[in-house]
Design brief:
252 residues; mainly alpha; Homeodomain-like_sf (chains A, B); DNA-binding (chains A, B); homodimer; 10 helices; Arc Repressor Mutant, subunit A; transcription regulation (chains A, B); Repressor_TetR_C (chains A, B); TetR family transcriptional regulator (chains A, B); DNA-binding
Chain lengths: 252, 252
DNA sequence: GCCAACTGCTTGCGCTATACGCAGATGAGG
DNA sequence: CCTCATCTGCGTATAGCGCAAGCAGTTGGC
């Protein structure tokens, strides 16, 4: 049995019951919530052990009673930001509707806390909510004829693409109407200045066309396009899987 | 004409010609190469203004003659790590082979410098090589019947997914054979410990099966699966695009 | 030949994560 | 009931960080 880091013990409620000493003044959930509030309001750079500690009424060092490092605090923050995977699928829904709903919901949570995609996780996600969302995604694919291996790979692809889409959208500052005076607003101007039509002919024509006016809809449009590609790909995989099952059942 | 940040001027060779004062002792390419070498050897955390400056024979503050902030240095590092997009497509190749080759090549570059996916870019990529790779990707899709808008969206999806795949693989420590004593090696053990089969039935069956033995092949297998989904999705999009063109040419 | 513009260097500030030692509170074992 | 290991949160201290500001020396256009 491997040793569990403290933050995981706390998040999963795996503390030993017979404990001496004073009761902890705060819970890890409170600390996570406070940190999330700071990151939402002032960005990820505003997160420091001091700022979070002060927000819950601690001194800096007291935070280390709950979390062994800032990386662990980050993992807690992400888990709190995602929230529980309370997504129930109607029985009549097909896999396509289900996984679409899943992707939309988890993307909405990420967009509500855009800094989540910027956090550098040092280890694979092991926190309750992140694991819960994986489980929920697998549930969405349950009525497909895919193997559980294929389902996991597929979910990994959809989730990975979605996470990157949020990150890129946020990074490019296209989460809402674009202020032309902002660095992002000047992006097009800079691109036009740098991208010589002779050296980059395809980009020169496609770029302005894509990012032209309706920056507001960028996220949704690219979301639909990307997810559409993946869904059609899954459909093809399912079709292939079905035909193979019919063709030679048991063979190979 | 918007103002160009210094590092972009230097990267694109857009310096004013008549310049007084001493010649710069180093080029931005040298600085970038030195920083890349450090990050390759010791990781992204080993990158500081001091460490990079020392590597090129500068004191810390002299770096600011070339780069206005550490974020700009990061952008330069990523550009240098990607290298030029010198990918030529054989005339006989179809779009499927072409985009596969593109995705493989850019992923190989990222895997060669895994920290590139961990860098937090504050602005959209505007450096020569990153832009060059976008152009190259568009070239791969050139002989499709898609609009340039669709091509850009498609490339964005493929690139985003690929970048995330590298990041996740690196993050999970699955870039090679897994040492069971490492934190990543203990991952499965921890998952088994935390993931109650009652609470997470699907994950409990799929997880061990997927990450079980051949961790070495994780990157390639998931790469093929994800890219396969996207390619089939693109194929469906192209088929739809063709049939529509035939059905009602000119209408809408 | 002048002097503005540029080079790289030095000092210093405020901030960071976190190692370490502390007094007081608590509850299990004798 | 008392003891004391164990826990709480606090205060201090350290090494490193990015970067602002001012420095002397070098260069090339006027």
């Amino acid at each position: 049995m491997a040793h569990l880091p403290r933050y995981l013990q706390l998040l999963w409620g795996r503390e030993p019951e017979g404990r001496r000493g004073p009761k902890p003044g705060r819970s890890i959930a409170e600390i996570g919530a406070a940190a999330v509030a700071i990151a939402d309001a002032e960005g990820l750079d505003a997160i420091s052990m001091k700022s979070v500690a002060n927000a819950v009424g601690f001194t800096t060092m007291s935070l280390y009673r709950y979390v062994d490092s800032k990386d662990e605090l980050s993992a807690v923050m992400v888990d709190v930001a995602y929230g529980p995977a309370d997504l129930s699928y109607a029985p009549g829904q097909g896999w396509r509707e289900r996984i679409t709903r899943w992707a939309r919901e988890i993307s909405a949570r990420r967009m509500a806390h855009p800094w989540t995609t910027e956090v550098r996780l040092a280890s694979p996600p092991l926190t309750p909510n992140t694991i819960g969302w994986m489980e929920s995604g697998l549930e969405a694919l349950e009525d497909t004829p895919l193997t559980s291996q294929q389902r996991l790979s597929t979910l990994l692809a959809v989730d990975g693409w979605g996470q990157n889409h949020v990150r890129q959208t946020v990074q490019m500052g296209l989460t809402g109407p674009v202020d032309p005076d902002s660095p992002q607003g000047a992006y097009l101007e800079l691109v036009g200045e740098l991208v010589d039509a002779a050296a980059f002919p395809r980009l020169a024509t496609a770029g302005p066309e894509a990012l032209g006016d309706d920056d507001d809809a960028f996220f949704d449009e690219e979301f639909d396009h990307g997810l559409g590609l993946l869904l059609d790909g899954i459909e093809a995989l399912i079709a292939r899987s079905n035909s193979e099952r019919v063709k030679g059942s048991g063979r190979h």
